[in-house]
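Q: Hi! First time doing this. I have a protein sequence and I read that you can turn it into a structure. Is that right? Here it is:
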Amino acid sequence: MRTQGRDPNRSLPVAEPRTVRRASLFVLTLLAIEFLDEFVFGVGEAAWPLIRDDLGINYAQIGLLLALPGVVSHLVEPAIGVLGDVWRRHALVLAGGAVFALTLFLTGLSQTFGMLLLAFTLMGPASGMFVTLSQATLMDIGPDRREGNMARWTLAGSLGVMTGSFVLGGIAAGDVGWRVLYLALAGLALIPLFAMSRFHPTPVQHGHAVGFRECIVGALRALAHRDVLRWLTLLEFSDLMLDVLLGYLALYFVDVVEVTAGWASLAVVVWTVAGLLGNLLLIPLLERIQGLDYLRASSAIDLVLFAGFLLVPGLWLKLLLLALVGSLNAGWYAVLQAQVYDVMPGMSGRVMTVSSVFGLLGSLLPWGLGMVANCLGLQVMMWLLLLGPAALLVGLPRASGSSQNAV
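A: Yes, that's right. Below is the predicted 3D structure, encoded as structure tokens:
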């Protein structure tokens, strides 16, 4: 089949409509994978009060459930990332999707803490194969528009988190049970998995083809690169005000603000809707201003707003400040992750590798924070999350034009 056609009214070749449609469907499939992953995440974060009460677990056990999957992922994903550059990335994505669906099914069947821990632990690396390699593929599609594509990716994730929070709230109100929802998600996961099976993407290589050993050496060298270290460090700290905060948000409103699980689910919904609106605004915003300028301004404002969130009494004022915080930091991950891809051009799979190696210590943060909450209280632990915006203020380059060299 020809991939280029000729417009009789123009001298330049244009893509055939069928090719354009197929490329658009491929991008939508990649975004649907991210939507599903964050849908599951949104359900899980809003469901913690229900899971805790059902299984009778404490903060330390919740911290372990949040941390151990990340630790296992960071141990397994370095090899997966390298294989994604040198082997059949498509096969890895499909295998990850199949295991991801299976772990959702196991989660729905969980009756004990140990069984739930096993399901979550398997879900971590499965998500890495299915979701992170899909993100790497999206970054390969448009190297000159990485910030914009990462903003679209993050927007799809925000839609997923918001939808998951809404659905969990409905499930809680209807007294259906969180396990039924996870069983339904296992079936839902088969839809993007089937759609992905109809495409056969290959990783983009710049220069000569490289082998597994050369990729490992290149990834290790990248870990010593100044700019790679900068962006990976800031990514880990920024997550304190993103996924880590969301992981404890429902518990904070139940245990500190002292509202019901239904109102706590509303807080998660407020957070996710605010993040969705922030990501919607981010896409056109990045066409007008530098991403790093946005990071500087938003981190400074978030530092003040989140401190106010922790200090003010009452539910509604907290929800207002929470919405402002969520809308401002919505684009942190998109901009920072795009910077990592920019300094490692042509190595999208190895970005996953270095991120996993570097993030191993960061994955222990939820467990450590859970231990702090267990010993000193959740209110005290929440103040530690301010290290996120503080690190951005200290670690970002002083000027948008600061040079960074590719690996």
